[in-house]
């Protein structure tokens, strides 16, 4: 059984999802804020999404983490590696809950996820799929050094932009600062 490892950054703890996360998780997916990532959704659908987040670790050996503030333990989002059926390739995805945007949490957690993908899983590259009107996610991708690559037509979500992140080799050859 694959369990999500705990990753700590300067301000955040990335950990596996737990049943106790459901009320906050479900509230996010019931809100308009979730419109770019499968919502708004009824709690019954949110339950299935939470089970999918947990199950992805079992099926793929990697997945997305519950992102919490290290000093309070408060759940503020889900960030991590995602590759369900129908995706063009593995991605880094980020969803930050209401009231926590604009603080750099998505970027901090996504960089930790990318580092895990490259250093632990041995991936050479990764993408992020972003809905065209989602300017906030595009800003996070740019901060990480990602660039728009092409469009992808998802069977359920429609047109999505593929943003290619700096490769593991690019990061080793000069880091993100060399490409910003």
Structure explained in plain terms:
- The chain has 180 residues and is of the alpha+beta class.
- It has a single domain (7-174), classed as Gcn5-related N-acetyltransferase (GNAT) (Aminopeptidase), CATH 3.40.630.30.
- Helix content is 32%, strand content 25%.
- It is built from five helices and eight strands.
- Strands 1-2-3-4-5 form a five-stranded antiparallel sheet, sandwiched between helices. It has a three-stranded antiparallel sheet with strand order 6-8-7, with helices on one face.
- β7 and β8 form a beta hairpin.
- α1 (22-30) packs across α2 (43-60).
- The protein starts with 6 loop residues before the first strand and ends in an 8-residue tail after the last helix.
- The mean pLDDT is 93.
- Residues 12-173 form the N-acetyltransferase domain.
- Keywords: Transferase.
- This is RimJ/RimL family protein N-acetyltransferase.
- It holds the Pfam family Acetyltransf_3.
- It comes from Donghicola tyrosinivorans.
Key attributes of the depicted protein:
GNAT_dom, 25% strand, 180 residues, N-acetyltransferase, 8 strands, single chain, RimJ/RimL family protein N-acetyltransferase, Acyl_CoA_acyltransferase, transferase, 32% helix, alpha+beta
Number of domains: 1
Side-by-side strand order of the widest sheet: 1-2-3-4-5
Instruction: Using the coordinates above, name the CATH class.
Output: Alpha Beta
Spans of at least 5 consecutive residues with low confidence:
none
CATH superfamily: Gcn5-related N-acetyltransferase (GNAT)
**Helical residue percent band:** 25-40%
In one word, what is the shape?
globular
Number of contiguous helices: 5
User: How big is the Rg?
Assistant: 15 Å
- The appropriate CATH architecture is 3-Layer(aba) Sandwich
- Main beta sheet: strand number and arrangement? 5 strands, antiparallel
Strand content: 25-35%
**Estimated structural class:** alpha+beta
CATH topology term: Aminopeptidase
H and E order: EEHHEEEHEHEEH
Distance between the termini: 39 Å
Mean pLDDT: 93
- The beta-strand count equals 8
């Amino acid at each position: 059984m694959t369990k999500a490892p705990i990753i700590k950054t300067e301000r955040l703890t990335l950990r596996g999802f737990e049943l106790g996360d459901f009320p906050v998780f479900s509230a996010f997916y019931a809100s308009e804020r979730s419109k770019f990532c499968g919502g708004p959704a009824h709690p019954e659908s949110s339950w299935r999404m939470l089970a999918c987040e947990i199950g992805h670790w079992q099926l793929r050996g990697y997945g997305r983490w519950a992102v919490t503030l290290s000093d309070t333990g408060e759940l503020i989002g889900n960030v991590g590696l995602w590759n369900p059926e129908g995706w063009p390739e593995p991605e880094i995805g980020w969803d930050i809950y209401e009231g926590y945007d604009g603080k750099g949490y998505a970027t901090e957690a996504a960089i930790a996820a990318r580092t895990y993908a490259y250093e632990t899983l041995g991936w050479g590259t990764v993408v992020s799929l972003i809905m065209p009107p989602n300017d906030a996610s595009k800003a996070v991708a740019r901060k990480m050094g990602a660039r728009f690559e092409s469009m992808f037509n998802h069977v359920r979500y429609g047109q999505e932009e593929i943003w290619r992140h700096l490769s593991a080799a690019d990061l080793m050859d000069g880091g993100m600062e060399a490409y910003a």
